[in-house]
Design a protein that fits this description.
Layout (H helix, E strand, L loop, with lengths): L2 H22 L3 H26 L3 H24 L4
Helix pairs in contact: 1-2, 2-3
């Protein structure tokens, strides 16, 4: 167990409050913010896992997740602005 894997476990624990807010928030905007924060935590967890396991494919996965989640959040916010 190296420090990178401990950091990944820490980022995995950061997903719990984000998931709680995404599921229980009353406001749709708060849910969107929690969803974006979850994507950031997942990307960072994949980055430290890539360093911990010394596997370069996880770097590519983290990069793809960051790009797709950012784009998906923008599209979701665009559709959401119709009702706000």
């Amino acid at each position: 167990m190296n420090p990178w894997l401990l950091a990944a476990a820490g980022f995995a624990l950061c997903l719990v409050p984000c998931a709680f807010v995404a599921l229980r928030a009353r406001n749709v905007v708060d849910r969107l913010v929690a969803l974006e924060m979850t994507a950031v935590c997942e990307s960072l967890a994949l980055l430290v896992l890539a360093e911990g396991f010394e596997r370069t494919i996880f770097f590519d996965l983290a990069f793809a997740l960051a790009l797709l989640s950012f784009g998906g959040g923008l599209v979701f916010a665009r559709f959401l602005e119709r009702w706000l």
